[in-house]
Amino acid sequence: MKKPGFLSVIVAAMTFASALYFYSPEYASGLTGFGGIDTHMHLFSISGKRQDHNPNRGGSGSFRSPHTKTSSFTRTKQPPSLLRPSNAPEEEGYTNAVGPLLKLMDKRNVAKAMVMPPPQYRGQPGAYDYKALLPAIQAGGGRLLLVAGGGSLNPLIMGTNADKVAPQDIETFKKKAELIIKSGAVAFGEMTALHVCMSERHHYMAAPPDHPLFLLLADIAASNGMPIDLHMEAVTEKMATPQKLLEACSKNPHTLPPTIPGLERLLQHNRNAIFVWQHIGWDNTGHMTTELLNRLLHEHPNLFLSIRVLGWQQTRLEGRFRNTITNPQGRIRPEWKQLLSDHPGRFMVGGDAFVGETGFKNKSSESFKESWRAINNLLEPARSKVSWKTAEQVYKVHK
Ligand SMILES: [Zn+2]
Ligand SMILES: [Zn+2]
Questions:
Q1: Has this prediction a pTM greater than 0.90?
Q2: Sign, Cα dihedral of 310, 321, 343, 226
Q3: Tell me: the pLDDT tens digits for 345-356?
């Protein structure tokens, strides 16, 4: 027998429950006044010929043979200009996403956001460089800031064997970095040293964090006062790949290389190079503990962390994600509160959502909403530091 209205009662109940969940007096009071800076956002293009997350094989700076001289990333020798007209379909797609992104930022009281190409590897189908984002940055009216290198420098690192870096590779890398500096980018990114694959349409990429080209990037970044945005799984020593990652994507290898020792060598290499390790709180290996982060923050003054809080559905699935920042009720766990208050000037927020002309892509909205919700619930002075003051200082921007 049909039960009219049963489904709508369930939907209404769920909507009410989630409204209660998202409401809190601290959050409501945080809606006026401070205005955050999000250090890590992406745009995606629906209308363009490029499709994000095309199937591919992934790349590795450790294991792939030295690259050929041709590159799909050098379509033009012209220096990028913010006045360049939007004339390619994918550029239009990114520009069309600006309105929705600004609206979503308004909703969470985010004043400015850094927008960047995700980390890519040489020959990745649908790869794009930061130049395709320039019209969108311009359309942001000063609220969107460019971070560049994920589509130009990262493929060079992924495509160059760490033991066989030729003088020509160094020259090419320097030239591409120079173009980024001239483009008005506030940081280099999104770079990766270990990026695991989450679905068959996603990518596995790995290169040692102390790869000679990462060391070179540290020197370039330091002498130009630009931080480096880094995506990297925490792996303290070589480990068997967690079963959930093997099941999620056949491109993940059976073992994951260590990243933390290499990161520490990279941090020691040039203390004037600032690294912003992104996606803190999204732990796919089980190694991203508050103990490890606390030690790294104490020992490496040039390391900064940007948090990405998981959605409430994910945190409710106990055991699937370890070392989460919030508990299933959406509250920051005591050990993370302690870490944030012990190092308030070392944390930022990186929502890590993909926004297109129709709004958020898939479930990427959750990390943006949850990250800002959690930070808005912090007490002052930690809240101001984490939400915008540290970003202003590290990226040398003003909101
Ligand atoms: Zn990203
Ligand atoms: Zn990332």
A1: no
A2: negative
A3: 999 999 999 999
